[in-house]
Amino acid sequence: MLEDRYRQFVARIREPGFRFDVTLAPPNPARADQDVRVAREGMRWRAERGDFTASWDATSGRGWIRQSMNPYSADTLLRIVHSIALAQTGGFLLHAASAVRNGRAFLFPGVSGAGKTTLSRLAPPDARLLTDEISYVTKHGAGYRACGTPFAGELARLGENISAPIAGLFFLEKSSHNQLTTMEPGVALRKLLRNILFLANDEDLVSRVFQAAMEFVCLVPVRSMQFTPDARAWGLVR
Amino acid sequence: MSEKYISRSPAIAARLLGDEMMIMSATDSTLFSLNPVASCIWQAADGSTPLSEIVKSRVCAEFDVDPETAFRDAEEFVDRLAQHGILKVSNEPEPNAAAQGGTA
Q1: Is a pLDDT exceeding 90 seen at residue A200?
Q2: CATH for B5-88?
Q3: Ranges of each domain in chain A
Q4: pLDDT tens for residues B8-59?
Q5: What residues in A contact B20, CB-CB < 8 Å?
Q6: Is there a contact between A189 and B31 if contact means CB atoms under 8 Å apart?
Q7: How confident is the prediction for chain A on average, in pLDDT?
Q8: Are the beta carbons of B13 and A207 separated by less than 8 Å?
Q9: Which of B13, B29, B33 has the CB atom closest to A186's CB atom?
Q10: What pLDDT, on the 0 to 100 scale, is given for residue B97?
Q11: What is the pTM assigned to this prediction?
C-alpha cells in the first residue's frame, strides 16, 4: 500500500535515518476523534492520533508505529517525522505549492483556497511540479533548496522527486490582475510562520523553527503575488 | 515606589530583523515584534539594571521623548510582555544577572 502510494519516492537505503516497525491494529472507536499530539518524553518522541500511535528514539531514529490499515496514518507520521528532522537542520515543511523552472525553485504558500492547486494546474510545460500542497525546504550552505514531496493536495498527483535551489517565495492572492509586491521582512516572517507545518509541542523545536524562518526571510526574496487564474500568472515566476 | 528589574525569559527565541526585534514565545508560539524603543528596553533587560535607569540612560538618551512619558510607556510595555511570559519582572536584581546572555 505504501510502496504504491509513494511510488517514485521509495528507495532501498542501507542505513536509513529512521526505521519503524509497523504493527497493524484495528481502529479504536474510543479514540476516533483524538487530534494529533506530538511531544518529546526524555529521549523519545511520541506521536498519536485517533488512528495511530508511534514512538521513536530521538537519537537513533528507531521506533514503532501501531496503526490501522489506511494510508493516512503513515502520511501524517511522515510529515511529523520530517518536520522534526528538518527543524534540527534549519529546514521546514511549508503549506505551499512549489515548482522548478530553469533550474530554480519557487514556493507558493497559502492557506486552503489561496490558489496553490490552481497555480499548479496552470504550470507551463517547462515548470516541474514539486508539490501542490506541502513543500520540503532544506538549508543548503548559504541558501535553501526545495525538494519534491509525495504530499499531494487537490491535484492528487505526486510531485517530482527532484530538488533545486530556492530563488523566491510568493504568497498567493487571487486577483483580477497579475502583480508582484515586495514584502517587509517582518510581515514576511509572520506569514511564513503561519504556513510552516509544525505539530510538535516542544520549546527547543519552536525556537529552531523560528530561527529557520528568520534566516529564510533574510536570504530568500519574499513577495506577495496577486494573480489571475490563467496561464499568464506564470509570467511573474522567473 | 520600588524599583523594577527586568530580564528576558529563557523560553523565547528573539532576533533583530531590520529595525524590528522579533520575539517568539517557545511555550505558546506567539510572535511579537518590538518597535525601536521597545527593542532598546528589551536589549537592556539584564536583570540587574533598574527599569528607571534603563529609561533614563538608554531610552531618553537615544529617542526624543520626555522621561515621564518614557517611563510610563516602559512600564506598560514591560507589564504586557510579562503577562505573556516574555519578560520576567522582579523587585530585586537577579542573582548572577551579569551572566545572562544576549539574544540569538
Answers
A1: no
A2: 3.90.930.60
A3: 2-88, 92-236
A4: 998 889 998 887 899 998 878 889 999 999 999 999 999 999 999 999 999 9
A5: 185-186
A6: yes
A7: 93
A8: yes
A9: B33
A10: 64
A11: 0.87
- Dihedral of CA atoms A28, A31, A35, A39 in degrees, nearest 10, equals -80
Q: How far apart are CA A7 and CA B63, in angstroms?
A: 61
Contact A207 B29 (CB under 8 A): no
What residues in B contact A189, CB-CB < 8 Å?
A: 17, 22, 31
Q: Which three cell numbers stand for residue A131?
A: 508539490
All three cell numbers of B81:
510582555
What distance in Å separates the CA atoms of residue A118 and residue A229, rounded to the nearest whole number? 7
**Interchain contact, A189 vs B22, CB within 8 Å:** yes
Helical H segments across chain B, by residue range: 36-44, 51-54, 60-62, 67-83
Q: Which three cell numbers stand for residue A134?
A: 506541502
Global ipTM: 0.72
Which residues on chain B are in Cβ contact (under 8 Å) with A212?
Answer: none
pLDDT surpassing 80 at residue B104: no
- For domain A92-236, give the CATH number: 3.40.50
Mean pLDDT for the stretch of residues A162-176: 96
For residue B88, give the 3-state DSSP assignment: strand
Task: Tell me the pLDDT tens digit for each residue of A48-103.
Answer: 998 999 999 999 999 999 998 888 898 999 999 999 999 999 999 999 999 999 99
Long-range contact list for A45-53, CB < 8 A, 24+ apart? A45/A84, A45/A200, A47/A77, A47/A80, A47/A199, A49/A73, A49/A76, A51/A27, A52/A76, A52/A77
- The answer to whether residue B103 scores a pLDDT higher than 60 is no
Residues 22-41 of B with CB under 8 A from A: 22, 24-27, 29, 31, 33
